[in-house]
């Protein structure tokens, strides 16, 4: 029953509502759903009082879905995304012509009647009875607004949308009761404003502001008489009166509205006649929706921001709750993307790798100490066409990235070096490091059950001239495979796993790294974002910070929403980090990464190239910026030999040769006019200074074991009697890498 007043009776509004529910509802329903009156009036009246009283007292008005704007860290727009293109504006920001035109054509007695227009109902019933079918409706603007609320609440759910628009008496009963309540609660001006903001105008435009921008590329407050009349005419049937697809029909409808405005004395007849003679004057703006419209090649970063929103519990406990908030929109999302860095990254990519090349590149740059992603780009643009993709090669699969990431080659070696130094290994540590050798017979794992080289897996260096012994500094600079296999044999796998965990290093599919020695040669797929963030910990003197992409979010009304924060934790001592920085500075100064070296600031990095040259990497950093660049075939089929990349022929691709220059050029632009702090380098004695060793760059390749696979047997002079425990005196011929598919890579 209706809610009673303290005196025991119903309020005047409630009495009116009940009266209307009984005496008028039948006619209103029949007129509103455009059914013939004959033979149905009794059915409509029967039982409608009980249903009317049982309807909840207040209409639940959901927040209107609006466009969300994604901004860079300087406030510039990256892209706008929305499920419904709408910008809510107050009535004062809507042209008076627009207000008058809509009322004139949709409900000319809007300011004279209540929620229900009795005259309109009688007129509609008469017209429908005479025609025997659909001739005229009598829903008021308020009733139409209520229907739009039901549709907005249904969203894109087809079942709910069908229920919200079904032509039944039950829906009209609800519509009528809520209309009565809203007239009393909101008043005419507020209802008109709400209607103008909620209704659909075609061409993906919801609300008058979006419609004004779509058709005339101007704000709703600046609409002229004829423009307002055209928009008001669209509302009745957005598809039929679509001016983009049928200008003649839209013009005829506009003129109907203008004439109606004259008849209701909103404008003089002469003014209406002059307006009818004018062309529509369209200045159509194409819908700019989604990350595909992002500027400066930031489509993939935009998509990453969306994935963060949809997966992080800070935005809602369930996937459904987060999706609902995102689709509702109306957000201002300020991100970490630095426009200078992003522009430099994309320009460098464009210069070095073409969109049409057989291979692709992806690059991601983060800020040490904060985890902020400052730049993210790739050579295959965000899109659906040829040589375009929606797969973000820079991130993990769960964030719309590649399925497994990409094998990293020797860019993994610094993680082992850091783990070994943390275990007490001296930074001057030397190993025999022959040109070719088997993997250790067994290596300790975290489970206590050692990995056993039951298959006689082997590994070799890039060049036969690379024969030890080597100390760590030179081994890192030249990326000596056998050195690091010996190091993991002595250090064990578990400390490396622990270091990887502390640096956030996981495979691209989200799995932890396997506990096998071949991981030190970069056999498993990892994303560029993961690598850039891990190396940033070296730049940050041992403190790792999880990557973040969002700085702040402002909801409609100015309310700030909580956002994910970077979590920073110590991954290694400052001494270890300073040691790694010194070692990796040597890679750029005199090792495999010399082509990537910056000349105006402290920098360090590591190269990597994998089996059959399917992947090439350079991961490097300064104290204030860390970046990872990958080049390769996303499908892992193309071998980068005798290949043209970016218009330049490459006999063999090396990590320092193609990814390195991409990193260098991106860094130069990103850090232009930025501070150039120094590393805290340490002094590492060079025991081989007098050996006359060749320190030329040589070749830069991390050959993944599996290319030779022979068992130890015949000695070909690789090393003779080995001083390293477990290394046989006889080594096989014909080994080009062979670990029987256990993976790895060098330089």
End-to-end distance, in Å? 80 Å
Derived structural class? alpha+beta
Question: Which stretches are poorly predicted, pLDDT < 50 over at least 5 residues?
Answer: 1-50, 133-137, 690-744
Strand order of the largest sheet: 2-1-3-15-16
Shape: elongated
Count of strand segments = 22
Helix content: 25-40%
Query: How many DSSP helices?
Result: 24
What is the radius of gyration? 35 Å
Average pLDDT number: 85
Task: Please supply descriptive tags for the structure shown above.
single chain, alpha+beta, 5-stranded mixed beta sheet, 5-stranded antiparallel beta sheet, 24 helices, 22 strands, elongated
Q: How would you portray this structure in words?
A:
Helices cover 36% and strands 12% of the residues. α12 crosses α13 and α17 (339-352) packs antiparallel against α24 (659-670). 51% of the residues are buried.
Give a short summary of the structure.
The protein is α+β, with helices and mostly antiparallel strands and 747 residues long.
Per-chain topology:
Layout: H1 12-23, H2 25-32, H3 41-45, H4 48-54, E1 68-71, E2 77-81, H5 96-106, H6 118-131, H7 141-154, H8 158-165, H9 169-185, H10 188-198, H11 208-216, H12 225-234, H13 247-263, H14 269-276, H15 299-311, H16 319-328, E3 332-335, H17 339-352, E4 360-366, E5 373-378, E6 406-407, H18 413-422, E7 430-431, E8 436-438, E9 442-443, E10 451-452, E11 458-460, E12 470-471, H19 472-478, H20 481-491, H21 493-502, E13 525-526, H22 528-539, E14 543-545, E15 550-554, E16 560-561, E17 568-570, H23 574-590, E18 604-609, E19 615-622, E20 625-632, E21 641-645, E22 648-652, H24 659-670
Parallel strand pairs: 1-3
Antiparallel strand pairs: 1-2, 3-15, 4-5, 4-20, 6-13, 7-12, 8-11, 9-10, 14-17, 15-16, 18-19, 19-20, 21-22
Helix pairs in contact: 2-6, 2-9, 5-12, 5-13, 7-8, 7-9, 7-10, 12-13, 13-14, 15-16, 17-24, 18-20, 18-21, 18-23, 19-23
